[in-house]
């Protein structure tokens, strides 16, 4: 796979890679003198933040000459803050990596360390093809931590109260009908934090995945779509039609995605909304926003439904791989050793438990116990092809694409107008 045009292809077989071998990787002792590193992550609260505290402490205990200073950056602020730090030549030593064109741009600017020769052999073997998402032209620029398929995360209790069965939602028409029943029951059918733009844009990604052929959808992730292909206009029209059914929470255009009880994730966490379209990190985010700060007991998952007449495989999914990179100025091998440490089986199990996610290291797969996450893992295994989020794949141009989708949802432009904005963004 040429990672400059990152396309994730995850199959059931890929999920099973390495399950037979579960050797542990101990943190390596740095051969350098005393060093201090800065570490930026976006786990702003709950069990995820606590995980990184323990991981850093465990690594430091095993490597007393290494000090890691943690800085937590809110997810929606991360990209801008990281870009500013890179431009100021003040990149943190260890930082959250989204991959795709965003990583490619960072590598092209010389801001990311090539750690190919520093990847622990055991970690390399266990991650197998997982390293491809952080590889460009054969060189490794980061270590993945998790796989995150996207779909609907819903409250089973609210569905039951409204007489809705997730198993019956096979088509977009079924989803509209379910939203009507949920609204009649007194809850917001679908939570959407459109103020942050990207959650709204993910709806277009999903409609594009359904309306467009595999080849055309892959062309979008490569930054070379044929936007005159009727499928893109059809995807935007499908989204506009869905918006007109009024399935979203009141005020969705000014709702944030992940911050506080009033966010879209918070609405699901507190049973104010029945479901949300989001990546697999949502289990942990929702859990951090419940009254008791534990995972929502009735949270479940179903994949995006089919779209009539679509040219794409109607079971295809979108997903991402979170990970971490070292800056070009990070002390080595200390930085790479920390990445190797948290990619080990033992740490990946702790990571999967804390974040309620699918670990990138398949030898830690038995740590996935959350019911919703198990359903997402099963759906991912059935996906014939799985593509990276369009904005991540496209880099800065993807952010402009996202704004066009928000304009459509706000009624500022029609489908043709949104397509014109997207063409301008990708020109």
Describe this structure in words.
The protein is an alpha/beta fold and 427 residues long. It has helices at residues 12-16, 46-62, 75-87, 100-108, 121-127, 156-162, 172-184, 198-211, 214-221, 230-244, 264-269, 282-288, 334-342, 345-355, 371-382, 390-394, 396-409, 415-426; strands at residues 35-41, 66-72, 94-97, 135-136, 139-140, 143-155, 188-191, 273-279, 299-302, 317-326, 358-359, 386-388. The protein folds into 2 domains: 32-147 and 320-371, Periplasmic binding protein-like II (D-Maltodextrin-Binding Protein, domain 2); 148-319 and 388-426, Periplasmic binding protein-like II (D-Maltodextrin-Binding Protein, domain 2), CATH 3.40.190.10. It is 43% helix and 15% strand. The strands form 2 sheets. Strands 1, 2, 3, 6, 7, 8, 9, 10, 11 and 12 form a 10-stranded mixed beta sheet that branches. Strand 1, helix 2 (46-62) and strand 2 (66-72) form a beta-alpha-beta unit.
């Amino acid at each position: 796979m040429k990672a400059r045009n990152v396309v994730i292809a995850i199959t059931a077989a890929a999920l099973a890679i390495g399950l037979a071998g579960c050797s542990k990787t101990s943190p390596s002792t740095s051969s350098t003198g005393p060093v201090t590193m800065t570490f930026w992550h976006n786990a702003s609260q709950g069990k995820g933040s606590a995980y990184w505290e323990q991981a850093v402490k465990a690594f430091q205990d095993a490597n007393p000459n290494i000090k890691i200073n943690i800085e937590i950056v809110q997810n929606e602020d991360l990209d801008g803050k990281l870009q500013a730090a890179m431009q100021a030549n003040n990149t943190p030593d260890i930082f959250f990596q989204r991959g795709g064109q965003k990583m490619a741009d960072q590598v092209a600017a010389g801001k990311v360390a090539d750690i190919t020769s520093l990847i622990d052999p055991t970690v390399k073997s266990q991650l197998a093809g997982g390293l491809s998402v952080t590889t460009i032209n054969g060189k490794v620029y980061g270590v993945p931590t998790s796989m995150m398929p996207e779909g609907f995360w819903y409250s089973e209790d609210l569905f039951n109260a409204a007489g809705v069965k997730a198993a019956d939602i096979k088509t977009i028409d079924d989803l509209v009908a379910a939203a009507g029943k949920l609204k009649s029951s007194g809850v917001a059918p679908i939570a959407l934090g459109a103020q942050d733009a990207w959650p709204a844009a993910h709806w277009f990604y999903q409609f594009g995945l359904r309306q467009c052929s595999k080849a055309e959808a892959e062309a979008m992730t490569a930054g070379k779509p044929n936007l005159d292909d009727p499928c893109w206009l059809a995807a935007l029209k499908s989204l506009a039609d869905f918006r007109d059914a009024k399935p979203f929470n009141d005020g969705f255009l000014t709702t944030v995605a992940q911050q506080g009880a009033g966010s879209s994730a918070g609405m699901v966490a507190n049973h104010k909304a029945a479901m949300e379209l989001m990546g697999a990190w949502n289990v942990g985010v929702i859990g951090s926003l419940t009254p008791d700060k534990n995972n929502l007991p009735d949270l479940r998952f179903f994949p995006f439904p089919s779209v009539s007449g679509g040219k794409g495989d109607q079971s295809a999914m979108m997903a991402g791989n979170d990970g971490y990179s070292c800056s070009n100025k990070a002390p080595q091998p200390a930085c790479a050793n920390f990445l190797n440490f948290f990619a080990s089986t033992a740490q990946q199990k702790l990571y999967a438990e804390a974040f309620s996610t699918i670990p990138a290291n398949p030898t830690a797969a038995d740590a996935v116990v959350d019911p919703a996450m198990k359903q997402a893992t099963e759906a991912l295994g059935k996906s014939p092809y799985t593509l990276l989020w369009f904005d991540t794949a496209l880099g800065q141009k993807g952010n402009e694409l996202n704004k066009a989708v928000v304009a459509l949802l706000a009624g500022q432009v029609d489908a043709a107008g949104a397509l014109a904005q997207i063409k301008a963004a990708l020109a």
